[in-house]
Design brief:
mainly alpha; 10 helices; 0% strand
Length: 231
C-alpha cells in the first residue's frame, strides 16, 4: 500500500498540469482579495463560493487521472503484480484527495494571507473552513466512485457534469423552491453548503450528512471496483 501511494504521489508531482494548478490557485486567492478590496467589498467575499467552483473544476482533472489508468490498463497491471483492489481504490481516493487538498488549500491560504495584509485579521470562520473541507471530501468520493464505475474515455468528465449541475441547482433552486426546503436539499448536494451561505439547517446536522454521504460513496465505489471486470 505504501509503495503504491509513493508511486501515485511521484507521478502526480511530475505532471506539469498539477504544478500549474497549484500556482494558479495560489495567485487567484491573492487576486480575489485584492479585487474585493478595490471594490470596497470584504476581503473574504466570495471565497466559499469560489471553493465550490474549484471543487467542480478539479473533478475533471481528478476524474481523468482515474479513468486514464483504466484506459491504459495500468489498473489491471497493478492487480497482476499483486496489489489488492481495495488498496488500489484507496490509493486513488488519496490521490484525488491530495489534488483537492493542495489546490483548494493553497487558494484558502493565499486568501488568508491577503486578508491579514489588508484587513489585519482572518475573516473566514472555522465553520466555513470545515464546510469547505467536508464538501471537497464529498466531491472527491463522488469523482473517484463515478470514474471507477464507468471506466470509459469520458468517465472523467461525468463527475464534472454532475457537480456542475449540482452547483447550479444549489443556487438557482432558491428561485422556485421554498428557502427552508432548499436549505435541506443543499445539505445533500456536493457543493450545496458552500454555495448556499447561511442555512436554516443546524451545522452539526449538515456536517453529519456530508460525512455519511462521503463514507457511503467510498464504500459503494470500493464494492463496485472489487466486482469490476477489467478484461
Amino acid at each position: 500500500m505504501v509503495d503504491l501511494l509513493k508511486l501515485e504521489m511521484k507521478e502526480l508531482f511530475r505532471q506539469f498540469v498539477f504544478r500549474s494548478l497549484l500556482l494558479l490557485c495560489s495567485v487567484f486567492g491573492i487576486c480575489l482579495g485584492i479585487l474585493n478590496d478595490s471594490m470596497n467589498d470584504p476581503v473574504s467575499a466570495g471565497v466559499m463560493e469560489w471553493c465550490g467552483i474549484l471543487a467542480v473544476m478539479l473533478s475533471a482533472y481528478g476524474g481523468l487521472s482515474v479513468s486514464r489508468e483504466f484506459n491504459r490498463n495500468t489498473i489491471r497491471n497493478k492487480i497482476v503484480v499483486g496489489h489488492r483492489r481495495g488498496h488500489i481504490f484507496l490509493a486513488k481516493l488519496i490521490l484525488v484527495g491530495m489534488i483537492y487538498l493542495m489546490c483548494i488549500g493553497l487558494f484558502i491560504l493565499a486568501s488568508f494571507l491577503i486578508q491579514w495584509i489588508i484587513a489585519g485579521r482572518i475573516l473566514l470562520q472555522w465553520k466555513q473552513l470545515l464546510t469547505a473541507a467536508l464538501s471537497a471530501a464529498l466531491c472527491v468520493a463522488l469523482t473517484v466512485t463515478i470514474s471507477t464505475a464507468v471506466r470509459t474515455d469520458i468517465a472523467g468528465l461525468i463527475p464534472l457534469l454532475v457537480l456542475f449541475l449540482s452547483m447550479m441547482f444549489s443556487g438557482l433552486g432558491y428561485e422556485f423552491i421554498d428557502h427552508k426546503i432548499m436549505d435541506v436539499i443543499n445539505v445533500f448536494l456536493p457543493c450545496g453548503q458552500m454555495m448556499a451561505g447561511e442555512s436554516a439547517v443546524k451545522f452539526s446536522v449538515a456536517v453529519s450528512c456530508s460525512l455519511l454521504e462521503t463514507v457511503l460513496l467510498c464504500i459503494a465505489g470500493c464494492l463496485i471496483f472489487r466486482k469490476a471486470d477489467l478484461n
